Structures are given as structure tokens and as C-alpha cells.
Amino acid sequence: MVKRSQGIGPRHSKILTFMEKYQKQYGFPPSIREICDETEISSTSVVNYYLDQLETWGYIHREKNISRGITLIKDALDRLISENVTPITGKLDDLVRIPLMGRIVAGLPIPVPPSDLAYFDPESAIDIARSMLPQREKPEELFALEVQGESMVDAMVNDGDVVIMKKATEAHNGEMVAVWLLDKDETTLKYFYREGGKVRLQPANRTMQPIIIDDPRTVQVQGKVLMVVRRLPAAA
């Protein structure tokens, strides 16, 4: 008996359908950006997550590090329609909507979400597949911030990216955190270290110096970084 697919979701189907249509029209595969535009996904990381699943399940083949290196395997859509698919992994997790609380920029305090998220604007959010998040994390304890600046570029956190944060008030040495500097009313995203009664906020940029805080009481941890989501620049 044929087992009904438990992994293919609406976005998988939309990606496959768009790839076939695009291939027939232009004679070559679409780019990641074009897939993002068609599926209304703003993050290349999320699109790549779906593409990796489609490759695992045998719908596409990908050539790594090659532009437009996505090949739709013959009869993939016929398999989708007939539902003759048994994914290697389990059921696709639901998307988790994480509130985008603002930018982490020097000079502005980070708006930490209250426990009831009473002021959450549903339009200011980012959708993340549940499987991309650590299993132990509870979605209601997460929030997102858009990064402005280049102090963490060597840690692959670029200007315009979004960091998924877990609410926290304490940090261990070496963790990447968002902190509020109370005496300066500024925020920053840095690696956190306690050293000799002081706090060192270390950038991941060889051109920048660390921030040394003499009084640790003026450093308020707002959250810890769980993951980074790439954001596509606006089309010209």
C-alpha cells in the first residue's frame, strides 16, 4: 500500500511547481532569490531549509556553490500529485512565528517582549521552521532583532541579518548576547566575558576594539543568540 507523504507541505509544493514552470519558460533553474520572491519568503536560510528537505526526499538535486545549481528530478511533480512519497525524515514541523521586536543599534534600548506579548504586531514577525530551532527551546521565549552594523561580521552576522534570541538576564563567558548599557542608554550585540570584576564585550570584527565595562551592574543582558537568519537585500 502506498504511504501518504507526511513531509511535503504547501511551500514545498509551491517551490516544486515554480521550479518546473520556470525551467520550461527559461530553460534553466531559478535562483534562490527568485524562489524567495515567488514563495514570499524573505530569508534565504528558510528557502535553503526547504530545498535541503526536497533533496533528501528525492525531488531535486543540488550542486553546491554553483549559481542556479538546482535540478528538478524527472517526474517529481507526478510523484507529488500521486503522493507516492515516503520521506526519510518525519513530519515537517509547523512554522513558528517569532516576533520581530526591532533593531539592535547603539543609542536605542532593546524592547524586551513582556510575558504576555501584549503589544506584539503580527505583521512584525519572522517565520522559522520548528526543526531549525533547538528542540529544548520554547517559541514563546524567543524574539527576533534586526542587526544594524558590522561589529559581528567575523561571526557571520552581517548588517541587515536577523538574530533569533532567547530571553535571558544572565550570560556565560563566550556567549553572543544582546546587552543594554544602562549608563549610556545604548545597546549592542557582542560576545560576553566576565574578567577580573569587569565585563568585556568582544566584537567579532578584527578592526574593532572590545568594550570594557568597569561596573558590571551597568550591563543588562537582554537575550542570547540562538541562530542567525540571512535577510535578502531589497531588489534594485
Report what the structure shows:
By secondary structure, this protein is α+β, with helices and mostly antiparallel strands. It has two domains: 10-82, Orthogonal Bundle (Arc Repressor Mutant, subunit A), CATH 1.10.10; 95-229, Umud Fragment, subunit A (Ribbon). It has helices at 10-26, 32-39, 44-56, 76-82; strands at residues 60-62, 70-72, 95-104, 125-129, 142-147, 162-167, 176-181, 186-195, 198-202, 211-213, 219-229. The strands form two sheets. The protein has a nine-stranded mixed beta sheet with strand order 4-3-5-6-11-7-8-9-10. Strand 8 (186-195) and strand 9 (198-202) form a beta hairpin. It is elongated. The protein starts with 9 loop residues before the first helix and ends in a 7-residue tail after the last strand.
Descriptors for this entry?
2 domains; two-stranded antiparallel sheet; elongated; alpha+beta; 236 residues; Umud Fragment, subunit A; 19% helix; Arc Repressor Mutant, subunit A; 11 strands
